[in-house]
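Dear U.,

For the methods section draft, I wanted the exact inputs and outputs in one place so we can describe them consistently. I've listed the two proteins in the order they'll appear in the manuscript figures. Please don't edit the C-alpha cell lines directly; just add comments below if something needs changing.

First protein:
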Amino acid sequence: MGVTSGTYSGALDTSLAGTYSPRFLAATGGTAASAEAALFAGMLAGQAYLNIHTVGTERFGEIRGFLQRAP
C-alpha cells in the first residue's frame, strides 16, 4: 500500500496489568506500577515503541513506531 507514516490516537490505562504484555510485566518487576514506571522512563529516553498486531498468523507486529511527545 505504500504507507510509511501516519498517526494513531487512543487511550490505554497504564495502571492496569492487562495493558502490558506478560513478558514486559515480568521483566519490569511484575506489577502494573513497575511496568508503568519502566514505560514512562523509556518514553522519556526515546526508547519506547508501539507494535500494532493483526489477528491471525502475524505474531510479530505489522506496524512499529517509536512514541514521541505531542507538541
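Second protein (the one for the lower panel):
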Amino acid sequence: MGIFNDIQSGEKSIAVIGLGYVGLPLALEFARKYKVVGFDINPKRVDMLNRHEDPSKEVPASEFQGCNIKFSHLLDDIRSCNFYIVAVPTPIDEAKNPDLKPLIGASKTVGQVLKKGDYVVFESTVYPGCTEEDCIPVMEKESGLKFNVDFKVGYSPERINPGDKVNTLTKILKIVSGSDSESLEEIAALYGSIITAGIHKAPTLKVAEAAKIIENTQRDLNISLMNELSLIFDKMNINTFDVIEAAGTKWNFLKFSPGLVGGHCIGVDPYYLTYKATELGLHPRVIAAGRFTNDMMGAHIAKIAIKKLISNDKKIKGAKILILGATFKEDVADIRNSKIVDIVKELQSYSVDVEVVDPRADAEEVFEEYGFHLAKSIGSGYDGVIVAVSHKEYKDLNEAYFSSICNTKSFVLDLKGLYRGSFKTMEYWSL
C-alpha cells in the first residue's frame, strides 16, 4: 500500500501550499476526490477563499462546490497532512536575479510539519537543481528527517495559462518526476487520477525543472525575434502583423507576434536559467539578447508616442495620453510584472499626463505595486491612445469611438493589431 492508496481511502490527505493562480485550481481539483487543506500565509486571501471568492478572478464561485477542502493560514491545520504540494511564486528581484524567498519560506513551513513517510511535490518554476540544492536541505534541517529515507520529493511543473478557459488544468498533459522510482509511480498515480490529458514521467527532478523553464524561454526568444523584426519593419513602413499573416501561409512558419512580454512566466523564467548558467561559468548570449529586446519594448513604445506628439505639433509637457489595459495579458486580472508600467514611467519622464484604465485590474493593487492610480473611467480630450492589452472589452472599439475621445491631430497606437486596416482618417500605428 502506497501513499496514493492511503489518500484514496481517506486515511491520508493533501496540503496545497500557496493558493494563487496555480495552487487554487489544483487544490480544488484534488478536493473533488480527496481530503485537501489549502494553505496560504495571506489571511486576507484565505478569508476570500472561504467566501468562495478567488482573488485572481480566475476561478468562479461554482468551482468551489462539492469540494472537500479547508482553507487556512494556520500551520497546525496542515500538520496532519501527508502529501504536500508547493505552488508559491518564484519572482525575480530588481537586479533580475531569482528571488527564492517565497520558495524557501514554503520549504521551511513544510519542514516544520514533515513526518516520516510524507511526500513533497514542488510546482513552482525554478532553475534545474533548485529542488535538490535549495529546498530539500531546508526541509531536512527543519524536520530533522533524511531525504529519500524518511520523506520523498517530486517536481511537477505547473502549466496553467491564466485567462485560458479551454486549456484548463485537467486538459493539459502533466510532467511529473520523483526522487526515486517508487515516488515517481506514486506521484504519477495521484496526478493521473485528476489529469485527463495524461502524464509524462520525467527521469529526474532536474529534467522536469529544465523542461518547464525552456518552455517559456523558447517563447520568449521567439517573441523577441518578432519584436526585433517590428523595429526593423517600422523603419521600412511595413506592418509586422501583415508580414506575419503572409509568412504564416507556409506550413512550417511559427506564428509568434510582437508585443510586451510581462507576467510571471515568459518575462521571468529565462532569468532563472541565465542565473544558473552564469553560476556555472557560462554566458547565455542568445537568451540574454532576447530578454534585452523584450525588456526595452515598453520604453520603445513610449518613445513612438512622443515622436507622434512632436510630429503633430503637440506640446509634450501636459500632453494627455490614455492607455487601455494594465494587466500583463488579455482577459486576466493579474498585474504581476506587467510591462505597461514601463510605458507609463517613460511617458511620465517627459512630463506627459498619462491616464490608465483597465476593467479587470484592481486599482489598489496597481497603486501598491507600481505607484500610479487607475482612472475610474475613460475621459476625453486625449492627444493619443495606446491600446496595450487586448481585453475583450476593447475589441469592438472603432475609429469613430477613438475620434470621439481625442483632440484633433491625435493618434492610436495599437500594440496587438486589433484595428489593423480599419482606420481611414485618424493616425494609426501598430507594431
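Candidate sentences for the figure legend, describing the second protein: The chain has two domains: 3-203, 224-430. The domain at 224-430 is CATH 3.40.50.720 (Rossmann fold).

Thanks,
Y.
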